[in-house]
Amino acid sequence: MLDRTIPFYNTILRCDHYQHREVVLPYGFSIVPYEKGFEKGWAELEYAIGDFDSLDEAEHYFVETYLQNQALFSNILFLLSPDKSVVGSCIAWQDKRGDDFVSSLHWLVVDEKYHGMGLGRALCCATMKIFEEQANFPVYIHTQPWSWKAIFLYLSLGFKLQKSDSFSHYENEYYQAMAELKKIVSEKQFELLQEFSEK
Questions:
Q1: Residues 122-178 pLDDT 10s
Q2: For residues 113 and 41, what is the distance between their CA atoms, to the nearest angstrom?
Q3: Strand 30-33, strand 11-15: pairing
Q4: 149 and 117 in contact (C-beta within 8 Å)?
Q5: How many Cα atoms are found within 13 Å in the side-chain-facing hemisphere of 89?
Q6: Cα separations (Å) of 27 from 24, 31, 104, 117, 168?
Q7: CA angle, corner 70, sides to 69 and 76, nearest 5?
Q8: Among residues 25, 33, 49, 23, which one has the least CA distance to residue 113?
Q9: Strand 100-110 to 139-143 pairing
Q10: What predicted TM-score, i.e. pTM, was given to this entire model?
C-alpha cells in the first residue's frame, strides 16, 4: 500500500527519446483498450489505493475526463487478469502546456494483489508504444514522492526528473520532493535519482 504519510510534492518527469521495449506479460494476462464498463474497474482500483473518497467520485472523474472523446478510447489501456477482471490501467493522454498540448502518461495503477509480476512495467511499455506510434514526444508524467517505486520504473524507461520544466497546472516542486525522497530511499537509489535529473 502507498504510504500517504509521505508529504505530497509535485514531481515532474519527462521522456524525450524512448527506446522501444516489448510488452511482456505473464501467461493469461492481457492489455486491451477501453470497453464499456471498464470505468467501474478503474474506479475500484483508484478508490482502493486512496486516490478518491468514494467509488462514485472515481467513476465520475473517469467518465468526465476520459470518455468525452470516443476517438481517444484506444489510448486508455486496461490490464486484464486471466479471468478477464480489470486489475490495472494506464492512459496515454494530452495535457495543456501553455497554448499547446503535450503528451502525458496518466494513472498507472495495478491491483496490489498482482504487484511484483512486472505488470506495471508492461502497462507503461504498452502506453509508451502508443506515444511512439503517434510520434508524440516528449512525454510528461506528474507524480509525487509516495510513488517512489513507480519513479524508479519511469527512470528505467527513459524518463528524467525535471528541476524546473512542467505542464498542465502543476507547479514543479523538485527540490522539496527530492528532500523527501532522500529520507525514503537508499543512498545508492538517491544517487540514481540525482543522476537521472535534468541537468
A1: 999 999 999 999 988 999 999 999 999 999 999 999 999 999 999 999 999 999 999
A2: 15
A3: unpaired
A4: no
A5: 24
A6: 9, 12, 29, 11, 38
A7: 90
A8: 49
A9: parallel
A10: 0.95
